[in-house]
Specification:
With 219 residues, the chain is of the alpha/beta class. The protein has 10 helices and 6 strands. A 6-stranded parallel sheet has the order 2-1-3-4-5-6, sandwiched between helices. It starts with a strand and ends with a helix.
Length: 219
């Protein structure tokens, strides 16, 4: 796995590089600004990019803009976006472009090495990894929508784990229920949210998050 890191905080940037190299992962370049990041993507042709949301010069959305451009230049590039706190608009804007090979994590998650590496591998393998706190805030802010009120507490738990990018077996393990029970809950969720069910995890997550963003705009 060839990785490029784009992060303007030198301590965090080099810390992530050391951590990943200690796990025998190939960090081929690090960058402190969007231009250097995009140059590294062009030159190194990485499999995965880890990108901070806020980067120089204005520390607003340069990281998101660079991530979108990197995916345009290198189709299939997996991107794991890092943010210091939940920035809902940035998360949903990214996901609106398609959730496959895409992750959005809070920076505090980097210190939880196992969770960070799990998210990185999930994204690199073509899946989705959304920080649980991002999912929780999306769900909470979307509650006025009548369709979400149709969900049972257990269905809401399953929906949150779906949105994180977990598959049925992982959800069953997390909630200590059977795969069959999870399948039934998911079928009910799609019916109550007026969403067509699908067996493809990335499309399933995208459908759920698109719905949540639509609900947020109406709220």
């Amino acid at each position: 796995m060839r990785i490029v890191i784009a992060e303007d905080d030198a301590l965090l940037r080099e810390g992530m590089a050391l951590l990943l190299r200690a796990e025998s992962l190939d960090v081929v370049a690090t960058a402190e600004d969007p231009d250097a990041f995009l140059a590294a993507v062009d030159e190194e042709k990485p499999d995965v990019a880890i990108v901070d949301v806020r980067m120089p010069p204005t520390h607003t959305d340069e990281g998101i803009t660079a991530a979108v451009e990197a995916r345009r230049r290198r189709p299939g590039l997996a991107v794991l976006v890092l943010s210091a706190y939940v920035e809902q608009a940035f998360a949903t804007d990214l996901l609106a472009q398609g959730s496959a090979r895409l992750g959005y994590l809070l920076k505090e998650r980097v210190g939880r090495v196992e969770e960070f590496l799990d998210a990185l591998h999930r994204v690199a393998d073509g899946g989705t990894a959304i920080d649980p706190e991002v999912v929780a805030q999306l769900l909470t802010r979307s509650r006025p929508d009548a369709r979400l009120r149709r969900l049972s507490p257990r269905e809401r738990d399953v929906l949150a784990l779906m949105a994180e990018g977990l598959g049925n077996t992982a959800i069953a393990e997390r909630l200590v229920v059977t795969d069959g029970a999870v399948h039934k809950h998911i079928r009910n969720i799609f019916a109550k949210l007026d969403l067509a069910p699908t067996d493809r995890a990335d499309r399933r997550v995208a459908a759920v998050l698109h719905y949540l963003e639509d609900a947020r705009r109406r709220a």
